[in-house]
Amino acid sequence: MSSIEQLTVLLNEAAESLPAQGPINDEKRNAFYAAYENVRKAIETPIDAAVRVLFGGYDAVALRVAMDTQIFNQLATAGGQSKSISELAKPSGADPLLLNRFIRILAASGLVKETGEGEYASVPLTGAFSDMSPLSKSAFHISDKAQMRSLSNANSLAKLPQYLQKTNYQNPNDSWDGPFQFGEATNLQYFEWIEQDPKHQEAFNTHMTLQRMERGPNWFDFYPVQERLLDTDKDTSKKFLVDLGGGVGHDLAAFTEKYPDLASRLVLEDLGHVLADVDKQQFKLHPGIERVPTDLFQEQTVKGAKVYYLRTVLHDWPDKQAKQILKKIHEAMTNDSVLILNENALPDEYVGGFQARVDILMMSILSGIDRTCKQFHKLLEESGFEVLGTYRPQTLSPGAGTIFEAVKKH
Ligand SMILES: C[S@@+](CC[C@H](N)C(=O)[O-])C[C@H]1O[C@@H](n2cnc3c(N)ncnc32)[C@H](O)[C@@H]1O
């Protein structure tokens, strides 16, 4: 049995030696995170737990201030050299004293390194938040005012307890009338709201391309596309796959790397202003793929395609709107068509902390919900579908996609 002293020594040694051993695969890293969390839960004091839970928002604020004042850009390009807080403050004209108050939070959480009094240098994570990294777009999107976890800025999240009190603790069930509208004092739905801010819209679009970056294999590598879809694809004059709410086409771009011959039978659908950002991305969408500006709540114009595919679209919507979206797809499907949902379905029990938090994020901005497998089955059955199967990758990383394959109920 290890004592706390022995464990402390072991972990400190590991922190020194592990980075030199090279990349660690997802399975091993996730197993370690789980063990590490178990140790934390076993020894954490009530005060430490309260601080951890209640003070997370301050890190997000510090991250955003450092991004806005070019701290990550400056440190990431300094070649590991230390920079003083006065130097770092120059490009933004910030008061060094003020900036230092934020940067020391980032140093404590390991995003930069403190090398002396008021002096900082980069660590490998620093580059992830510089402008060169697409992850900085995610950080911008998540820390922007609608979503900031800081209690002073996250209007919809900060006012969620008040909203729920007002609605007698019912699940929000309308994306146009929920915590977001209450918190932001707006009539706009969240997607309408970000459309008004092109910088945020672009950040959101790129953020979506990163959503699955570390979440294991692509859906078409663990779902039997050949056997379930291609072998039963009788009418090749029709479209093969429509990616609804496919964003800037990142999923189809990956799909055409494996199935380039299908490109002219693929359709990317999303809101017109989102499709306008397709060619701004770091990847190139196959030119054969048709781009069709679409509103999920209007008639589906591509009829009788073999596959209607939605990835992490339904979790944006409560049942009321999810059913309206499914109805439009149902109407366009023939008996040969297959509906494929690729969703972060939650387990029925022991939901991980990250997934549980994302669910509340969905609630607070979209009245959305991260559904469990059971809840997806129920939603599909109530919308006129029969679920033929569910598929998951062999190794499950947190948030890995689950594929639901469904057809029209006869
Ligand atoms: C959570 S993102 C998912 C994007 C992509 N499928 C993925 O998994 O990365 C939801 C997508 O739905 C789109 N969307 C939202 N409302 C829509 C609507 N009314 N009609 C069409 N697309 C919509 C958004 O623009 C966004 O690209």
Automatic annotation (TrEMBL):
Sequence intervals crossing the membrane: none
Gene Ontology molecular function: any one: O-methyltransferase activity
Top-level taxonomic group: Eukaryota
Keyword S-adenosyl-L-methionine found: yes
One Pfam family in the UniProt entry: Methyltransf_2
Gene3D superfamilies in alphabetical order: Vaccinia Virus protein VP39, Winged helix-like DNA-binding domain superfamily/Winged helix DNA-binding domain
Keywords linked to the UniProt accession: Methyltransferase, S-adenosyl-L-methionine, Transferase
PROSITE patterns: SAM_OMT_II (PS51683)
Segments forming domain O-methyltransferase C-terminal: 225-386
Protein name, entry field: O-methyltransferase C-terminal domain-containing protein
Species, as recorded: Talaromyces pinophilus
Upper classification of the organism: Eukaryota, Fungi, Dikarya, Ascomycota, Pezizomycotina
